[in-house]
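Researcher: First entry.
Model:
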Amino acid sequence: MTSGLAEKKREKYDAILSAALKIFAEYGYFGSQVSKIAREAGVADGTIYLYFKSKEDILVSLFREKLGNLVRMFHEHIHEDDRADDAIRKICELHFTELEKNVDLAKVTQLELRQSSLDLHREISNALKPYIQLIEDVLVRGIEQGVFRPDLDVKLTRLLLFGAMDEVVSSWLISGRRYSLSDQVEKTVDFFLRGLRA
């Protein structure tokens, strides 16, 4: 009984997040109302507040869940004994292919990472930390393996890698998605590795 109830609660939580993703992608965070999210999720407005404190909480939870899923996927595909350059390729490949498959997520991540209030931006940055940490861990491993230059500034380089992938996604969206995002993986990784390799 309890697990069935928990499962139903999780289904509603997921339905609300999926609806929020669609609404935020269509109207932007500031143009979205909780009532639109509720209508899209097929729940009453008040139901939203049983799961989330505010619209801001919905957005932060959305980032935490979706980016958390990406980090889990990376961990499933990247193993401790993998070469770091292969791991960088896998991170870029998953980043581009997952956002290409989920255009609403690509829109929300690109828009809300840039346009949110300072407090909201801080919360979203916290949700991003595991992803940035994953990139840093791969860079450190690459230095230890002798694959990457020993003089890399790891803290700066992790931001450059994330920022470059982020910009490729933004350009793809701005172009109206006129080309394949996943087709950009090899050129992007080649650029990264020319700067990283020992």
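Researcher: Second entry.
Model:
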Amino acid sequence: MTKMNEAFAVVGILNQHAGENINKPTLSFWQDAWRRLKKNKVAVVSMWLLIGMLLFAMVSSFFVSQNQANAFNTNEVTRYKNLPPNIGLPIPGWNGQSKQPVSSDTTNPYEQNDVSQHYLFGTDTLGRSIAKRVIVGLRISLLVAIAATFIDLLIGVSYGVFSAWRGGWVDMVMQRIIEIISSIPNLVVVTMLALVLGSGVTSIIIAIALTNWVNMARLVRSMTLSLKEQDFVLAAQNLGESPVKIALKHLIPNMTGTIIVQIMMTVPSAIIFEAVLSAIGLGVKPPTASLGSLISDAQNMLQFYPYQILIPSAILVIVSLAFILLGDGLRDAFDPRSSEE
């Protein structure tokens, strides 16, 4: 028997307690979500792009004012109008040369009009710098979208949590109100507010906020209905916590991920909606520039000066696409099961 014991050797962990140790560090919900988000390279690039644009939009207000973007000299319009983009490098389309509308000859309007200054994105029909107007337009479009989304967040979350928490006939009446608001076209609301408040940034923000909070309220209500039956919420009720504390400490923190994803999807829709309103004349007042108003003003020049409409359109597409891609990445990071379905 002793010979058989000597023939066998212990394989594996010698210490029994060592096998029960957890070598992988524990991660919180937000740390785990950030770990998964970093694996999505497209979402990370979109996130840094949006951070850079937001910082640039805030900093640009100190060196590119709205008055500078709108100002032009009536005596120098013929000299500075419709200048092509010029970055000072021999790159076709960006070297200050353009073709005449009535011929195929390539000319240099900067040399013809004795213009020494280089306009990176060219000028419009009044000789105003398109680069400055795009910067101001991006700032106004982001301001409208973020402000409207913030109001949408406050109204939608409060309305959805209160409706689901009370339940019964209160929930039924509040949901019927949502259905009535949803049945009213957004354009009707914007037109009414434009008649009362006048067309401008304020009326657009209020119009978007009054119509877009419905989706947020429905989403928050459905999540509150499922969360309020969980054990930790029932335990908080038995301990005597008020409904407000339960909502702030237990309900809303557990749906923060879904709310953030919904915000990322709401901001681009608000930007596009503002651009549509500006394009049909219900947006910001001239000569104030937004991305939508720049696109609308350059429609008649598309055939002869396409850069005047392509540049603000490209900025609008990039910003909207970045928000959408980041929203998709956040959705997969907060709910890994969604990417597997």
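Model: Note on the second entry: The chain has 16 helices and two strands.
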